[in-house]
Design brief:
By secondary structure, this protein is α+β, with helices and mostly antiparallel strands. The protein is 17% helix and 21% strand.
Length: 107
């Protein structure tokens, strides 16, 4: 079963198991992970599910699409090369474990 590890700015860690095909945002919201809001419900229209993916896993993810790229420019926290919208990162297949850092600000 795929696993997502969420690390908060203070170092607290929450690990959740998800179904194949689940995305980071839905997993966070359904498990009450602090700092992930998912205001638009996963439509890549709000950037309130912004996360920093583990640099070692970043190259295993699909490229950032144009709409995700535009929304990341609007994120409240600093955008880095490892910034992704959680709603656009799905687990399953070869990606069975992913660590993400939750930004200090989402809104």
């Amino acid at each position: 079963m795929p696993t997502i590890i969420f690390e908060q700015p203070d170092g607290a860690v929450t690990e959740v198991e998800v179904d194949e095909g689940s995305n980071v945002m839905r997993a966070a919201v359904s498990h009450g992970v602090a700092g992930i809001i998912g205001e638009c419900g996963g439509q890549a229209m709000c950037a309130t599910c912004h996360v920093y993916v583990d640099p070692q896993a970043a190259s295993d993810l699909p490229s950032v699409a144009e709409d995700e790229d535009e929304m990341l420019d609007c994120a409240a926290a600093e955008r880095t090369e490892f910034s992704r919208l959680g709603c656009q990162v799905k687990l399953g297949g070869a990606l069975q474990r992913l660590r993400v850092n939750v930004p200090s600000d989402q809104v």
